[in-house]
Specification:
This protein has about 375 residues and is of the alpha/beta class. It folds into two domains: about 5-135, Rossmann fold (3-Layer(aba) Sandwich), CATH 3.40.50; about 135-320 and about 345-365, Dihydrodipicolinate Reductase, domain 2, CATH 3.30.360. It is about 35% helix and about 25% strand. It contains eleven helices and 17 strands. The strands form three sheets. The chain has a nine-stranded mixed sheet with strand order 16-13-12-11-7-10-9-8-17. A six-stranded parallel sheet has the order 3-2-1-4-5-6, sandwiched between helices. A two-stranded antiparallel sheet has the order 14-15. Helix 2 links the parallel strand 2 and strand 3. The N and C termini lie far apart (about 50 Å). The relative contact order is 0.16.
């Protein structure tokens, strides 16, 4: 029996949708049938541009109205890369139209909105998942194996992570990620979703007991609306004394690393969000040894690299293709997996609490 093909529609012509166009094409269990924009000509230009480089056997149709795409009988699932401020409305509408939903991050302006979105998907019996690609990489199981082996890291004590990029000069004037009405969490939402998620993943989704956040710099803001974070740091305090720190910024050069430290060593991934272009993805484990002999003090480097074969940049085996392949299989199965909306809600709640803390002078916010 041939595998069921999940038929996709895209709500918006955001740049990230161009990358995911090819990911859908390479899944083997999905196809793209429609793209919608509020400007029909813009939707058609998007299709023509992508189709010229990565063609589907049959070109997707262009819609000049989101509702019209949701009403289409030949669309099973929708990818929603709309600005965060608009996502709740269209995710709820998509669910009520019986469409499975993959939602870009941050999924919502705040956790209460996301809870409504998830509830709408649950009521409709459709899958909800956020678009975090690294979760679907084969590297993650290899990292988990190292964390669990008892000697690579030992008992986890500390997690440190950073995701940042230096935005161009015109970014803060015309990019939606600096717009209070569209992306109010700024770098915390856009980049912090990943740093919070890797910390939660490391802790097997145990929620922190408390968090604190610091708004290091922001843009805009006035008496009525707070500044949009352009540089942010946070601390998470987990049960058992494990702590995590993260830093996100639109001001510092590109970095996307995580370091997990324990009683026996530490594990580092230098490209956990977007793997460097290669045929493999890996990580380093360090178990340094400090030796003394009267006057001789020696720090011995004991480092090893582990890797799994996995191509980057939209290869059929890449993490972005696996994201859409996994989702398409769940959508076609008719049995939504509650794990995915659950971890989205946890990520959102952590970021909400960090932002609440930062806007109140960095006070400790407890999570229940």
């Amino acid at each position: 029996m041939s595998e069921t093909i999940c038929r996709w529609g895209i709500l918006s012509t955001a740049d990230i949708a161009q990358r995911n166009w090819e990911a859908i094409r390479n899944t083997g269990n999905a196809t793209l049938v429609a793209v919608a924009s509020r400007d029909l000509a813009k939707a058609q230009r998007f299709i023509d541009t992508c189709q010229a480089q990565v063609p589907f056997p049959q070109a997707p149709r262009a819609f000049g109205d989101y509702d019209a795409l949701l009403a289409a009988d030949d669309v099973d699932a929708v990818y929603v890369p709309l600005p965060t401020g608009l996502r709740k409305e269209w995710v709820v509408k998509a669910a009520r139209a019986g469409k499975h939903v993959m939602c870009e991050k941050p999924c919502a302006v705040h956790g209460d909105d996301l809870a409504e979105m998830v509830a709408a998907c649950e009521e409709a019996g459709v899958q909800f998942m956020d678009g975090v690609m690294f979760m679907h990489s084969g590297r993650m199981q290899a990292v988990r194996d190292a964390l669990d082996d008892g000697h690579s890291v030992g008992e986890i004590k500390r997690i440190a992570t950073q995701f940042s990029f230096r935005a161009p000069e015109d970014f803060f004037g015309d990019n939606i990620r600096a717009d209070q009405s569209l992306e109010p969490a700024g770098c915390l939402g856009d980049l912090g979703w990943y740093t919070a998620r890797i910390a939660l993943w490391t802790m097997r989704y145990t929620m922190p007991e408390a968090v604190c956040g610091r708004l290091l710099s922001g843009v805009g803001g006035n008496g009525e609306a707070p500044a949009v974070p352009s540089e942010f740091s946070g601390e998470l305090f987990f049960p058992g004394g494990v702590t995590a720190t993260f830093y996100n910024s639109f001001l510092t050069a590109h970095q996307q690393w995580v370091n997990i430290s324990g009683t026996e060593g530490n594990l580092t991934i230098e490209d956990f969000v977007l793997p460097y272009f290669d045929s493999e993805v890996g990580f380093d484990v360090s178990n340094a040894v400090f030796e003394t002999d009267i006057c001789k003090f020696s720090m011995e480097r004991h480092k090893r690299r582990s890797a799994v074969r996995e191509y980057a940049t939209n290869h059929p085996g890449s993490q972005e293709t696996k994201l859409f392949r996994t989702f398409s299989a769940l959508a076609s199965s008719g049995e939504p997996d509650p794990h995915w909306p659950e971890i989205s809600l946890k990520t959102q709640r952590v970021l909400d609490a960090c932002l609440e803390s930062a806007r109140d002078g960095g006070r400790l916010v407890e999570l229940t």
